[in-house]
Design goal:
16-stranded antiparallel beta barrel, mainly beta, 16 strands, 5 helices, globular, about 450 residues, single chain
Length: about 450
Amino acid sequence: MCRLVARLLSAVVGGLSLCDLPPALGDEGSEDWGLHAQSTFVGQYHPGFPSAFSGPNSLDAHQQARETFDITLYGGLRPWNGAEVWVNPEIDQGFGLSDTLGVAGFPSGEAYKVGAANPYPRLPRAFLRQTINLGGEPSNIEAGLNQLAGTQTADRVVLTLGKFGVVDVFDTNRYAHDPRADFMNWSIIDAGSFDYAADAWGYTYGAAVEWYQDWWTIRSGLFDLSKTPNSKALDPQVFDQYQFDEELEERHALFGQPGKLKLLGFLSHGRMGSYNEATAIALQTGLPADIAAVRKSHNKSGFSLNLEQQLADDIGMFERAGWSQGQYEAFEFTDINKTVSFGLSLTGQRWGRPDDTVGVALAVNEASSAAKRFFAAGGLGILVGDGRLLRSGPESIFETYYSFAAFSGAKLTLDYQFINNPAYNRERGPVSVFGVRAHIEF
């Protein structure tokens, strides 16, 4: 503990040496600044599918195609030892299928809840990251997006402060987490039940602290919720509506292959509506259930397990399982209270293309019984709401992709998803979604 306190003080006042700290790491190979960029295009199409009825938040039963495009600049500098400041100005354009509505496990992680026909600028990330080395085996860090080249020790504390995505730090997974590089479905790249704090684009203000020691890591974070659920604006009042996240990670070797297991919990405090209250009013008045009419301060919690396991040099597997409290509305992410997902990722070295990747995954999502009664009464969630729900069932999703390395830094991906019972509705679907993704970074 003395060493940890000394490192924290040293980072603040510039060089106090209060304990027997390990010597400072050399500057050889360390970057003082970095500049990178990426651009991603995603096009998705689904043919017409069976539908007994549809509502305001339904996936359009007629065939449709939509596209999204973004370009991001990653600018970073090192103001002092162990620190990195990054800003990510971005230009976005396009729409998700049906304006990103109709499926709880939405098929494109590149489709935000805000769409626009014309390109528009925004700033998703602007943050400070401070790494405090505590000793242990040193390792080299390669330069990359939001990462300066340098060196760090196995035992360390990492503080991230500013505007960024909660899932930049929490619920990460080597095989299923990046819609620009691997799977694309929302409930496969993240735990669908993790209702993480975010604006409509998926980012928020907050702070996270990570403590790495030997074979384990503890992560804690405090983040700002939206002003109202699923809105563009974050709450301007500090500690008015917030979320606390806690994650425990253990690292292991299974039959000589590395793996990680993470346990994540969250607690959100915000003005959110009770499904049962909104449904009761709808049954009395004969009007569609309105969740906004019953919003008041509540606490909502949830947890998830996240496994990544290398099986061989070219094969890895992942699995997630999550649960969140089902009596209150989804606040930020999507309308999922229970979820299980798992899959495999295989690089192409066995057929002479080591930079190619093929993936296959399955996700099964469920809403709580209170949420389903709310949807049956005409209620609308963040992504789903068919106006009624006569026969409900679990939303099951199969996804597979092949990522082809076209040239250095550029990849072209073909993606297919099969969605059964979209929005938990047995009266609609199934639907097939075909996708293509072009991604380049430098």
